[in-house]
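@channel anyone free to eyeball this complex?
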Amino acid sequence: MEVPLSAGPGTPTRAPSAVTNGTVDTAGAGSATPVVPAKLASPEFVAVIESALDDFFVAREAAVGELGPIFVEAAEALRLFVLRGGKRTRPAFAWIGWQGAGGEPGGAQGDAVARACAALELVQACALIHDDIIDSSRTRRRFPTVHVDFEQRHRDRGWAGDAAQFGASVAILIGDLALAWADDMVHASGLDTAAIARFAPVWANMRTEVLGGQLLDITGHAGGDESVAAALRINRYKTAAYTVERPLHLGAAIADADAELVAAYREYGTDIGIAFQLRDDLLGVFGDPEITGKPSGDDLREGKRTVLLAEALRRADATDPHAAKLLRTSLGTDLDADEVERLRAVLTDLGAVDDVEHRIADLTERGLAALETSSATATAKATLRAMAAAATRRIA
Amino acid sequence: MEVPLSAGPGTPTRAPSAVTNGTVDTAGAGSATPVVPAKLASPEFVAVIESALDDFFVAREAAVGELGPIFVEAAEALRLFVLRGGKRTRPAFAWIGWQGAGGEPGGAQGDAVARACAALELVQACALIHDDIIDSSRTRRRFPTVHVDFEQRHRDRGWAGDAAQFGASVAILIGDLALAWADDMVHASGLDTAAIARFAPVWANMRTEVLGGQLLDITGHAGGDESVAAALRINRYKTAAYTVERPLHLGAAIADADAELVAAYREYGTDIGIAFQLRDDLLGVFGDPEITGKPSGDDLREGKRTVLLAEALRRADATDPHAAKLLRTSLGTDLDADEVERLRAVLTDLGAVDDVEHRIADLTERGLAALETSSATATAKATLRAMAAAATRRIA
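replying in thread with the prediction:
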């Protein structure tokens, strides 16, 4: 299986076709602002991952059927959830991590690696399905969330008991199923037992870290820790380790990479991963809803404890009590468009936006430096440079 | 490591010391009623399993600490949950399954197998913690359930937001952590990669089946399926596969048992597992609260859709409309002691209790017959006979 992970360096990407091709946007790397929505994985790679996921569900159909109609419904809901979208960022980093450590795409081994990479999407399905219960989110990717979906099925069928409790219960179990099946997919991937043994401890750390990040997130919110350090710690575990660092590390483990390359990947992954989240935080306040698909200023309405908002509060407390008061009374409330606009101006005037942009630039530079001096293949380095640009300069 | 799984056959068990020793109760096997609360695993075996679990948590302390104080709290809550009790039934069946297929206790291999068996308790922790959210249970083993515990911590600290939502959220994540750590414990057990490769597909089936059984359970309840077949299907997946059949199968897989022995174990496991649940159903209505630790007649108040109640409804519908009406209007309501007593008499008079007792006897006979003709070692056969008696004739 030869799959171009990304268009790679040198591919013209300023043309509108870059968007339709969905290739990595390297255009932004040298320009002041990104010009097209960047994607981290090529459509060909996305298709390979989705086909591996679909195959996995097809292979389970008989076993699923034996467990009865509700289980068939649950498995189908999970299949749709997994296949309905997502950027396949984590599989893309795992795949390039493997190649950068000498993995050769093509043949049975390449197929096995792609399947193991695709399993990351099932871990992610668990994280999102459970997160949606935790956040009481009603929609995801423009569809009802899993718990809302089953709440509605309960209502439509006139079943006994509390529909919302039923929906949440089914969604808890479907999330558990996704987590269990993620493992099963790794074991059924065709990776040899030695590769699985190298993979397992990294996989273990990744899962613990993302759960730790989620715990930090909800506790930070409830406990009201407004510090920049707290926000950065959440980014470190909930995003960086889980989205970039450990996926690269998993790929390296499959390829039996040496400790130096693993260390370089982890430095790149931590830095680029945090930068990725910081970009996300900026988009959550300043992003164009037409492009991001999320309502404008949503993070402000949610009062999300991002580094951007923590930094703004820190600066306001030090220099501008009026702005501090405005932020504390506004964040997390039902803001109208004018109020969102006003808060944006406050964040910018406080210098918090510049601060976050500087952090992104510094982290990106440090991550790329670690990559550059590593023993990763030249192709992988070029792709990871492009992915760093796509992750940190994207507009959606 | 030489650990007596049970006292084995021939051990005097009618003496009161049998209770304090916690050995398998084989006394009931030949008598009309069990005379002492039976345990499936010896105290020595329980101690080995608990020590393996504790070691696992200790080995994680440094990694846990890095993730911050709330993660330390979460991991500690999970540790206490896992170590606070439980009969260690699943590890016991896995352990004897391994021995029956030629596994030799003692040495590094025995230690590794014990650790892999102990990992079943982490799967069970996930199942129970998530079940308690699903059922809105406030206590488990006389302690607050995990979601109630963290709800209380939220309240005690005067944190922002909804305390109950916070408690449920943390408990969802702690359950996920238990599920992920169960795998990690298998991988860190010291089993060789070939054994883990044989173990993995059975482990996969077991997890899918228990989640399937839980889905059937909540949907059967909501959807009002009153049939005996529906209740049996829940028993098959939620209890039999998960508690007896797959644990034995896991042990067999570690020992690389042949297909015939696996088939015999699975037949024994399915039959004895269902019989175990049917005994549980009888205890849920007729059990002595002093011994079971659960309020008398609790299953009646919950309107739990057991085979016993399904059979009673089926019989009442066919022969006694008055009893049918009484059952339908009473089950799942807040019954007082007299009403519980009256319903017990109705269940007995309808012949439902005898029917369930016959099912238990038939299943036990069939399961033991499969075991008898198998190639399991003589010691394992004797122990599994004793465990079948303990599982199906217990009074708590």
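from a first look: Residues 7-37 of chain B have pLDDT under 50 and may be disordered.
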